[in-house]
Fold:
Amino acid sequence: MPAVGSDVVIAGIGETPVGRLPGWSSVEIQAAAVLAALRDAGFALSDLDGLINLDPYATPNSMFSSTLAEHLGVAPRFACTIDVGGTVTGMTMLQQAVWAIESGYCNVAVCVYGENTLTGRPVGAQGLHMHNMLGGEEWEEPFGLHGMVIPYALLAQRYLDLYGATDADLAAVALVTRRHALLNDNAQMRKPMTLEDYRASRPISSPLRLLDCSLVSDGGGALVLTRAGRAPQGHGRGVTIRAIGMKTTHNSVALMPDIPDLGMAAAGADAYEAAGMGPEDIQVANLHDAFTISVLVSLEALGFARPGEGGALVRSGAMDLGGRWPLNPHGGLLSQAHIGGMLHITEAVRQLRGEAGRRQVEGARRALVSGNGGIFSVCGAMILEKP
Amino acid sequence: MLDLLATPPNPTGASVPFWDACDRGELLFPKCGCCGHLFYYPRRHCPLCGDTALGWQRMSGRGTVFSHSHVHVAFQGGAWSGQLPYTVVLVDLAEGPRMLSRLIGDDASAVRGGDAVSVVFPRIGDRRYPFFQRAAAG
Structure:
């Protein structure tokens, strides 16, 4: 596993408001995020020569990179749309941007995702129009499976059975991310949550309740990459990508490996090896949290907790601000917004710059970001470092 | 549950024999003629060795529950409201492969991980579907 060259840095981040953005189209949201990220880095629109995005899930579009390039008014040398699913796409976009810059083909590349998932999805749709999202329509829909919640529910039930875990373990994740979201002015969920609130939330697909599930959100996030020292505003502010580890093991839940063998462990091992680090070197844990179960599984796969002990770790306070590994200080997909994991990365950058305000993690030098697409089908782990 | 609902499959040339067998009340899984790998779901090649000389093996239809979920939301649309809650299961077949299916029967709501289940083939519309029921239910 080769280390990512430390010469390429994240020089700018851009976020739009999240929640409901009526009157905004997906391409407009992505453009706003790109412009914010360029401004943050001090680049002009005309500096952009690499553009990588993910097309909207609620209203799928092909050729969305040229849609966005035209809308922005740029003519990049390199443009592409990447979809490896869920919250790992952002990491794959970064990987492509790093390679594009390291090869010398691009100087300034932007990675962006955003859409009007909440206000723009087709009327009456229970889920998104994610046809073939898990690649197994013939082997899923006839059996009553559609969308993302049921596969994660099957994973969660397996976790409970395998380790004797309980809903208190799942709840702990929902509660800590909500506590953190309350410190973020750009978060959808603004009310405190108690264990009683969690348990009173309606069942969706057992054992998952409403408050085990991430949000549906409008919004966007973008990242600008360039070589260290190139960004006009980047002096001392560029964040280094120390390592990105990836693993694809399957697509549909029927072929999902059992929990100890999920690809997140391999992705994490690759990232740790490439960076020459372990969990003990990390101060911020921005972990995939499309569902509460995702965090427990990821904590264990990435070595923050032993198998079956993720819930105990979260309940101990270790994942709270002030604890050893604050989890998703921005509130995550569960309580801030679900912007495909892009805001896990922008938040990691903000934390490493020391610009996170009242949710700043003291002494944050390195952040681990994890993401996965499908049902831990494509797993990614990335280590970012303050220069 | 009297009126089961199922979204019909759209088989490919590789999977027609699987669904045709279900209509006869048989569960057939593909088996590699080269390396002997028995797998699910049907494909035109063996996912273990890549060979395309495949045959079919009749399965016992017995298995155990790897995981399950009681579904309370009509993700496939309002027509499914009357099915709620229904139970989705991952079944480890006695012969090895795991498949996703539905667990039916009055006692489906009491299912636990590791429970013995067996295949049944209810007719829904034009097809019969390989669903499961708890073995104790006979």
